[in-house]
Protein 1
Amino acid sequence: MFHCSAACCEDSTASMQHVHTCIERCHAPLAQAQAGVTSELERFQDRLTRCTMDCSDKAKDAFDSGTKEPVVKQLLSSCVVKCVDDHINLIPSMTKKIQETLTAIGK
């Protein structure tokens, strides 16, 4: 990428716009890779957040219905631990998707 960008600047007769376009073209694969990884990580984080928010809602509902605080805390804790465990199990498939995305960009 840096060699590509440097080569864009070697033509002293090229217009500023041409050099800029050339450099952007050099950086495009990196930008695509970054966007792909960011998107996959955001999807993972959103899913984990939804799961923990569901746990929070269940705990609030239990507390509002008269369940004692120590029981609610235990319910919340076990629910969040389950969310984390479930999402840890998703990491290999997420990693595979990221690798596939990066491989497709590299072609």
Note: The chain is about 90% helix and 0% strand.
Protein 2
Amino acid sequence: AVVSTQSTGEAEQAPPEACPVEETPAPAPDIKNWESCESADVMLADLGADKIKNILSEMGLKCGGTPIARAERLFSVRNLSKEEIPPSLFATSGKGRKRKVAEFVDR
């Protein structure tokens, strides 16, 4: 709020009013443990595409493709140890793709 002072004629800013602060944090959304989901469709509906992508990335797995493909990939490894996960599901370093792009550009 702007307050006018009569002595100087200049406008001054009034001190901001204290905003009410909520003491209790908002409850976290109720998300099932992803390992207990009944299907990839349920997993996608419960977690959402971004959360599934983050989980895959944190596990070092490929995280590209459509949201349902990512959900199916995560669902397929839900009860496996890291040693039991097929090597084809792990993300690569990306060097192979750059090499293929360079070969394509050089043609």
Note: Confidence is low (pLDDT under 50) at residues 25-31.
Protein 3
Amino acid sequence: MQKTLEEHYTGDLENRISNAWDAMQYTFQCCGVESGADWSNTKTWLNNENWAVPPSCCKAPDWPDAFGKPVVEKLTQLACMSGDPKLSNYNTGCYTAIQQWIVARATILIGIGIGLGLLQIFGIIFACLLCNAISKSGSQAV
């Protein structure tokens, strides 16, 4: 995560890695890998408006137009760019936020895994039964 953040994030809407980071930060309400301080190490981020962190790190209401220039203008109005970073930006790193999301849903994920495993076992059992029924019927494969 740290490598993609530092080497590939540009903030450009055409960059897939930038879009993925923005979506992750907006969805999980997080900033950077460990914290917003990770953004000071980026090499390629186009920081031409003196943003300490990308707009997707900023605390904002749930707007339908989640990314792009309209949101940047709204966040500027909310003083995300120049306000106190602890009040206007997400403080949790995305690694921790994703880890917490997985832990909170671990029982569901484990249940889905067990269900899929049982489905595969039943498929194997029924395939064996079908093979056995075909061999008992005496039909030969062509």
Note: The first helix runs from residue 2 to 8.
